[in-house]
Amino acid sequence: MSLVMDAIKYLVYILVFPGFLFCFLSGLLLCGIDRKIVARMQKRVGPPVLQPFYDFFKLCGKETIVPAAASRTTFLLAPLVGLAALVVIQLFIPVFNFSAFSGVADIIVILYLLLIPALSIIMGGAASGSPYAGVGLSREMVTIISVELPLVLVLLAVGKVVGNAMGTGLCFSLTQIVAWQAEHGSLIATPSMIVAAIAMLMVIPGETGNHPFDAAEAETEICEGMLAEYSGAPLGVYKLSHAVKMLTMTSLFVALFLGGIGGGIDRMLLSWGLTGGAAGVIAVLIGIVVLFVLCAIITIISISLIHAATARLRIEQIFKYYWTVVTGLAVISLVLAWYGM
Amino acid sequence: MSIFSYQHFPVYAIMVLFLGAFLIAAIGRKAPVRHCLAVLASGASLAFMIALIQPVMLGGEIIAYWMGNRVPAGGYAIGIALEVDALGLFFGLVVTLALFASVIYSIRYMAHDDNQEQYYILLLVLIGGVLGLILSGDMFNMYIMVEIMTISAVALTAFRHKVFGALEAAFKYMVVGGIGSTCILAGVIILYAQAHTLNFAQLAALIPGNLNTATKVAFALLFIGFSTKAFIVPFHPLAADAHGAAPASISLLISGVLTKSGVYGLIRLTYVLFQTMNLGTMQFWLVFIGSVSMFVCVTMALAQHDFKRLLAFHSISQIGYVLSAVGLCTAMGISSGLYHAMNHTLFKGLLFLAAGAVLHETGTTDLDKLGGLSKKMPHTTVLFLIGAASISGIPPFNGFASKWMVYQATYMKAVESGNIGFLLVTIIALVTSTLTLASFVKVTQSVFFGQLPKEYENVKEVPFGMRLAMGILALLCVLTGLFPGLVTTYLTEPATRAVFNAGGYINAMMGSGYAESVMGANAPAAQAVNFAEVGVWSPISWLCILMIALLAICIVALSSKYDRVSENQGAKVEGKYDLFFGGERSVYSQVGGDDLFWGFKHNWRHYFGFMHELHSGVVNDYALWAVVALALALLYAMIVL
Amino acid sequence: MFKKLIEESTGKSPWLFHINAGSCNGCDIELVAVLTPRFDAERLGFKLTGSPRHADIVVVTGPVTNQSLPRVLRAISQVPEPRCIVTMGSCPQSGNVFRGSYSVAGPLSKYVHVDVDVAGCACKPEAVIDGLALATQILAEKRRAMK
Question: What is the DSSP string of C99-147?
Fold first, then answer.
């Protein structure tokens, strides 16, 4: 009986929250907020906040053309794999006090899982046979290389700080990092982590492939690169993946640096005199709302602001920027973390 | 002792290979006979190794085997000995497995070559040599086996001597490999002069307490000798040439087996024979060389545009991982290093065989000329993708499991020793992994996806025998990735214990109590090995989640209009299913592999330019590098040991 | 429900693909002007795409020269269904001042079914938005007509 209950519980996790449905709704909503904010910053009215939903459903209703030169299976399956991997990452990222699959979550696992969506789009693009896709995937891969180094350094720094505090030397478990913050306050209060957070904010648009780091999907130069041959529902899935990736990266930021808010929610509920199972459910519900608001704020800071203010960089400029400026910041944070600051 | 007793299995395993070689020479004129003999010999050797898992890996026994039962007398070990501990068996298993895959593959792959008897003879002799090296219990036999191995590897490199560059590659290999072998011989001579014995166990008891200038020189010589066999920096250009020119089934062995024999030699040398690994300077040495190999070779691989040369550089890069991990001198480090060594044989073998399949069908491995083969060779493509995902460390394949352990091991070491340098190794390893991914994306794009050139319209899938060999390796890649717990428990942990059990190694051969009597208080006790921190990565649960998520998404996708797929079927709408080409009729325009990562290379152009000048391809230069490396090693050994 | 969502959405998210068939560039910059802050067609969901595979509405400018004709037709055929074709400016409708030239193959309606014509040389952004809005309605109808 309990096995069935467990199975249902995990199925709900995967399908509803924090899995598929949650990713779908809040990812596309984040994307809509981003587009609206960028438009407002450029003194435009901008599309409705629900525009990404319209786009997605419209694409579902379109014909899907498989080019004669494409490898059919890879071409059609790649977007789905990428989306599934993103949903899985979202399952591993704790929402304050709630984590669907604790224990499995590990920073390095997440680091590698983050490669899979990018890889799926690369594979799909390569399978389409388009020369634009060839150029696009080369740029996408260089973007991955650029972003990977600072991201690794930031994650190691976080692991080191929490590990120091817990006395184990290092801590790679995301659940533990969040739990520690709930008890001792958010990490962003420490000097080394301020630097790391800034670096992470710079990493987010590169990882999601947003403007100005979207050389890989430059629609004016290379016809959207790897997506050039995609149409209909698979294209919609890629657009959805892009939106979910924004959610994933921002909620990863929240988990790494702002996990202390979870403790705040607990204390608030306690002061209201709520305990037991009901409090847990309410805490999760509040957590979801707070998480979404925080994600939106981070999206605005790290994606929309930069999008509205800058022009697209060339690929070698992206590489240079990440391996000098952002990596420099990340190294500083790691060194600070190493010496206990 | 019955002749069926497992005590005899090590010598049988070596003997069947040499016996097979002789029989092929004698009666292998006909192809079926030849193939049967080769498969039988390699299969029997593998079977003997597997049969040894029970007593050695699980029972923890160390088999000491004296040829002709000439056991040590008067405190001196004169007879020829084989000694199999878990470490040796671990490498023995890897080696014989690789041989088995190679032989199965060769049957169809080499079907159109001349002089096939010689090929199989050399193949079996090569692996006989490697296996003899790994299982040997005394230094001089080890040297002989090194020579057998090197000479046959040189001959096999030049086997397709009509291929451009094959003879040149073999010549380079012979020169630098010869320098390596000579170093080993010189080291052995010096050790013999000092300790008056050639037996490993006895040397391991006599040498560590009595280090003097001569033994330090011997150490440096042996170190460089085994380094050339492992092709680590600065001996990596050889590997590129040799792998590129040799038939794919031989590239598998050179990359998967010969490098492993070098790694085995280094582990045996540093952990057991000289027991120097508790020195920080020695750990630094290995980790430094490992990290440099890791990074230099992955960047070299990025600059290649030949499929097999690219794979060759990746081999050395992966060996860099192994050495860095092994050099940490922690249980987790060695465990992860050995795990990665095994995985490397599996996935790199698979990749080389895939390259061979491409060569077999198209006649070229030039990345700039190939493209779009996935439609023609779907099975090979899938198998290649498994190998590529494994080497790039994409979960849930085996590369991820072992690389993850390497990261954790280096990071733990940094935390424990408080030395931020080890942290740098973690970072280099992670970046190298991404660069590896980049270079396999390049291969995937320029060989299997992208546009199909006109001249390869008639390419077919490779024969079943070749796919079978690739399939075996791919299956093992997946299995070792899915069940890392089993691999660490049954294979790498016993081997790690063996590495830390120099005392047991000595006593098993020289009689119990020998180590204590010779070395007194310094006798290396079997160190307590703590595996508690070995990472628990549970891919099964992860994979279940991924599968359910994928299934859910597929159901949702199919229930919507994801199936509104239109394809080019009969009803021809002009241009609709062509590639979008800005409105033009689509023409062949594959993006070549050479400049695929321009954005990366442009920023590193000075580095790449420097590397390009350095790798001149002149054998004199490479020989000079070997001599310089030897000089540095001598200097370093003098200062720090 | 799903079908309804799709039908609803089709009218709200029209993506444009712009083909220049020998245009003098006058109409082209007017199309871009439509997307600038002053007119902001994005508030209606319009978006310029780089590939015909993504597009719903194909906007053709220029008198369709002999050289461009096969390219235009090929690009249009690569747009997935349902799709709308909008001609922008007088050139693709009538040939404008280029009518009768040895090198002009237009008007476009000789070769494909054109859904909306936006007249003017060059046409005003308001007219363009009006025409595109009309095309969007036609698009939604076409979507409804699909199974």
Answer: TT-TTB---GGGTS---EEE--TTPPHHHHHHHHHHHHHHHHHHHHH--
